[in-house]
Amino acid sequence: MRPCTRVARRRLGVAATCCLAALALAACAPVDESDDATDGSDAGSGDGDGGAVDAAACTPDQLPLYADGRLTVATDKPAYPPWFVDNDPTNGNGYESAVAYAVAGELGFADDEVEWVTVPFNASYQPGAKEFDFDINQISITAKRAESVTFSRGYYTAAQAVIVQEGSDFADATSVADLADATIGAQVGTTSLTAVTDVIAPSDAPAVYDDTNAATNALENGQVDAIVADLPSAFYITAVQLDDGVIVGQFQPDTGDTEQFGLLFEQGNPLVECVDTALDTLDSDGTLARIERRWLSDVVDVPELS
Amino acid sequence: MVSETQRARERFRRRRSLQRGLVAAASTVLGAGLLAWLVTHAPGWTSVQVRYLDLEEARTALPDVAAAFWLNIRIFVVAEVCILVVALVVALVRVTPAPALAPLRLLAVVYTDVFRGTPTLLVVFLVGFGFPALELQGVPSSLFWLGVIALTLSYGAYVAEVVRAGIVSVHPSQALSARALGLTYGQSMRRVVLPQALRRVLPPLLNDFVSLQKDTALLASIGLVEALRVADIQAKQNFDFTPYVVTAAFFVAVTVPIARLTDWLSLRQVRREQGASR
Fold first, then answer.
1. Which chain A residues are within 8 Å of B224, Cβ to Cβ?
2. Does residue A229 share a domain with residue A100?
3. Which pLDDT value is given to residue B52?
4. Domains held by chain B: number
5. Where are any strands of DSSP class E within B190-259?
6. Which of A66, A140, B130, B152 supports an S-S bond with B82, CB 3.0-4.6 Å?
């Protein structure tokens, strides 16, 4: 009979394990279902409001904010020039830092009521609750992306620029067709990369890098003939990072609409309506144009690639 | 003639194995069920489904990822051959007793120390961007070969230590007996020590190669468009993580057979060394 008791004891062990597992489940089971429900209703009311926003609702105490009384703005680290200066978004210097503070001011926040948080690009669009009100990180608006997040209206229209080394075979290119035989590098996740594959369509598959620094490095090493980046970044790269880099020309990615950078919100975040109104005001009163003149170099003298 | 006691014993064993099977099946079903319930009832499950398990995204990603994964396989195979050669040479240098080879031994020690101590990603960066910057004649500029060199440098050091451990684990009497029979050092190493050593370290070697297979994805950082990078591009373009899941499936599909092979080899080795009886 002894073997039977051993089996019985084992069965008891299994039962105990199951109990423990059940306890663990109870402990980590979906506790924030109520949270989820409120999120859902928020999104619903946001959609219901449509485009028209009551200006009175767009004051700091009325806004649906991540942290009460503060505007929480996210960007990636390092924050690159000319969008940010000195890798410090809080100083108000650089185009995107200035835009964020202008939006905050328009909504009625003082500068010290703006809180910056670091959110990597990947994390900015992952599912789940966001730990910021909006993310400003040179993110291009596309219809496909808008299925996962909510975008504000565009705040900057980006052209793409081709950078080569002086004296390169491709330095005299006057059309995107002239670049078809070039090995081209671009940063992953950018519309620059899409522009390379869709517009230039080079015979060699493009080399893809984690950031523009790595792409610039590859250009310096001669591993690629050209790199493509948005025009303001290209200005910075040729002015500061490369000794002998030149911008061959600029072109508009041919995706139907012009490329625009938008502020990224959690999907259905109703805050976007007040921010859109603020951006409309900043656009019509010339503030956006003024910030652009101050922080983004003049783009007039860069030839268009046919 | 089977005794009554033996029959009772067999009955008991049959009953016990049935019971064990039932309990195992029940606990597996229960465990998997609880896990599935937990995942599908998580508050974010719907958004995870949409953003990580989107069938349409998966269908778009599949052909591109599959084509790029062929590059991972090629890098893996070429690097594996190079690594075995480098590792064998380094291990042999480290165990050779010849006094004149002391500087080579020192070099081998420094090599294994440095490259085992450096993160593979860092080696990939240094080789991928640093070698071409030297503008030396004869340094390959193709990303494929730069990647193979980087992985060989990093994994060569690990595998060299595995091989050396195998050589050291062969009892000294084996080499001594071989020498006593008149074999030279080289002959005794090649015919007596190495065959035993390599057989013994086969499971850890395969383990390193499973790891190598996954680390081919690190080469994305120097501009090589391999499977993970292809997924990365689509994921970032569409803000959908499904392509990553597709790529993970490819890596798992390759590593799982190698892992099972490793298990089987280890088991076979244990059986051989401990005799037929268990």
1. 207
2. no
3. 85
4. 1
5. none
6. B152
* A207 and A176, same domain (yes or no): yes
- Taking CB atoms and an 8 Å cutoff, what residues of chain B touch A3? 12, 16
Query: Distance between CA atoms of B243 and B65, rounded to whole angstroms?
Result: 8
Q: How far is CA B135 from CA A22, A227, A245, B4, in A?
A: 63, 20, 18, 85
pLDDT of residue A286: 87
Question: For residue A265, is it left (φ>0), alpha (ψ between -120 and 50) or beta?
Answer: beta
A33 interaction partners in chain B (CB closer than 8 Å)? 43
CB contact set of B176 (below 8 Å; sequence gap of 6+)? none
Q: Does B136 touch chain A (CB under 8 A)?
A: no
For the segment A179-195, what is each residue's pLDDT rounded down to a tens digit?
888 899 999 888 888 88
Asked whether residue B66 is domain-assigned, the answer is: yes
**Claim to verify: residue A226 and residue A279 sit in the same structural domain:** no
Question: Does A274 lie in the same domain as A137?
Answer: yes
Long-range CB pairs of B19-25, under 8 A, 24+ apart, other chains included: B19/A7, B23/A10, B23/A11, B23/A14
ipTM: 0.70
DSSP B10-38: HHHHHHHHHHHHHHHHHHHHHHHHHHHHH
pLDDT tens readout for residues A162-175? 999 988 888 888 88
Q: Which residues of chain A have pLDDT under 50?
A: 1-5, 7-8, 14, 18-51
Token pair 């009772």: residue: B8
Indicate the residue of B34, B44, B50 with minimum beta-carbon distance to A25: B34
Residue B90 belongs to what domain range? 57-273
The domain of A282 spans 53-155+268-295
Question: Any chain A CB within 8 A of the CB of B38?
Answer: yes
- B241 vs A218: CB contact, 8 Å cut-off? no
Assign 3-class secondary structure to A127-143. Answer: CCCCCCCEECCCCECCC
Question: What percentage of chain A carries pLDDT values higher than 70?
Answer: 78
Mean pLDDT within B81-103: 93
